[in-house]
Amino acid sequence: MNQGKHIHLIGICGTAMASLAGMLKQRGFRITGSDAAAYPPMSDFLASLSIPLSQPFAEKNLTPRPDLVVIGNAISRGNVELEYVLDERIPFCSLPQILHDEFLRRKEVLVVAGTHGKTTTTSMLAWIFDHAGMQPSFLIGGIAENFGSSFQLGAGKHFIIEGDEYDTAFFDKGPKFLHYFPDAVILTSVEFDHADIYKDLEAVEIAFKRLVNLIPRRGRLIAFDQGESVERCIARALCPVERYGSGENSAWRVINLRLEPSRTSWSVLRRGEHWADFEFSLGGEYNVSNATAAAALAASCAISKEKIAAALKTFKSVKRRLEVRAEVNGIVIIDDFAHHPTAIAGTLTALRSRYPRGRIWAILEPRSNTLRRNVLQNDLARSLAMADEVVIANVFKSDAIPEAERLDLVALATQIQAHGRRARIVPEVDGIVQLIVPEMRPGDVAAILSNGGFGGIYEKLPQRLRMLAGSVASNSAEARAKALSD
Fold first, then answer.
1. Hey, what domains does the chain have and what are their CATH numbers?
2. What pTM was estimated for this model as a whole?
């Protein structure tokens, strides 16, 4: 399309859609967008780019008539704006389609895919390339703190992109990453997820097999060394395959791992020989795996191990990934984008190593399309039982899930208690805050687990803790004054 054309994005507050909006604006298009509801960090991100955001969805948001409409994959038939687009025959496309046509052509495309870890791994890979002076372009499904952004349009030849296995649009039910035509791929993991669109693990594996089948013979596949699903997905790759992880036969093997409260360090053997020593400030063994995968692909693109090590040492994190949102009176509040039992287990394990003396609270909103269902309920109970205290909110939009398929909160709490942990169901955020604040004490760590806004708990919990701390301090001062007067 010619620059200056008007492009409207329906569902603009999705992480990928907001990033695309920024990229299109930087490319010279006039951008508008709409969504049902907006919340940080993407609402703040759009505001920083001065991109108009209309709420809620309405036909008037498409006036004046745009030249093109990008339909987000969360938008279904019945949406008032989508119906208007179809009725008025306004040209439309999907996010992956315009991304490929406007940005990926003529670039060397590096795709990071997998059920877990792809956002952080993409951010690490982008930072390594940028730190090495490679001037990459990138698109990440979150705000990379080193950049303060989820995208960049660089002058270099590489485009680093998070490859999402979720479907593309209401008219294209294939995975997004099949539109990216990668030159190289990192595959972090393959598990059953997205229970709303995949019927079972085999269906998920088929999607990843198709991605692997797109890699050219001259390309490269960096794959995690654990999991039968990963093995099946890479079995017929026609490009060179390199494994990473802790396995003895891995081309990139992690050894000497040290998880400390404020620092993580490890070494990597390359084909059995010592290659490099790394460290960074992030916690969690899974982040070591993510970083090792990024280092492996960067090395294959001729970036030196010294530059890789320097980049990782200065890597920060991604918004909503073990993000410290507040510290009040010795109580730490963590925001983590929890979408799957395995991810929750990784988060809680990382917090144990980061806060070894702290009491860990897991405060869950079952919001993702997988967690809202009972398909992984047993796994979820085991993951949550890794916390000391568990509080579970209502299933998000539970009426949209058939009762027979819906997560059973009472059964889940019973299962957690069978593991020796207390679990309580508190339907709404205000009730959660009212319940837990009087019980919390200095040294506690509250892990808020949700992939959405969770009713504003990220602001309400620290606010209530500050109010309580102020009240206690005031009462103590009054008591001391009274004692002195007596």
1. 6-96 (3.40.50.720), 106-313 (3.40.1190.10), 323-471 (3.90.190.20)
2. 0.86
